[in-house]
Amino acid sequence: MSVMSKFNSALAQKITDGVATMWCAYGFAILALISLPSALASHNVITIVAWIAQTFLQLVLLSIIMVGQNLQSAGVQQKIDETHTASLGEFELAKQARADAATELAELKEIAKDIRRLLADFEGTNKQ
Asked: Are 60 and 28 in contact (CB under 8 A)?
């Protein structure tokens, strides 16, 4: 990645981090309110509606939507992390269960050998 690309990425990240705050939304609201008296003084419905839609809502909602997306993203990330942790726990339990089953199987094989040996001994003593 070139120096210019790194700079552009870092600058874009800083701007995004700044705009995605409620403080920025408050600042945008104050900035938009500066032109409200002029819009109201026009007594023109279209000018007032345009101020609301194009000035106030666009400026303020931009930051608020970004804040909401960050909150939603954080919630999703928390669920992903919890699921990952739970999956790792289940994996460890499954590994332990497999190890226990292998140990039990080895013990059962030894018991089966002992039973076969006892049966062979028993048959050998009965033939005599």
From this structure: yes
Q: What pLDDT does residue 128 have?
A: 62
Helix (H, G, I), strand (E, B) or coil at 76: helix
Contact between residue 40 and residue 48 where contact means Cβ atoms under 8 Å apart: yes
Q: Is 45 exposed, middle or buried (0-12, 13-18, 19+ CB in 10 A)?
A: exposed
- CB contact at 8 A, 26 and 60: no
Which residues, given as ranges, of the chain have pLDDT below 70?
127-128
Looking at residue 36, what is its pLDDT?
A: 94
Instruction: Determine the Cα angle at 119 with ends 115 and 102, to 5°.
Output: 15
> What is the torsional sign of CA 33, 39, 41, 45?
negative
Tally of domains within the chain: 1
CB-neighbour burial class of residue 90 (10 A; exposed 0-12, middle 13-18, buried 19+): exposed
- Domain span at residue 93? 3-127
pLDDT at 79: 94
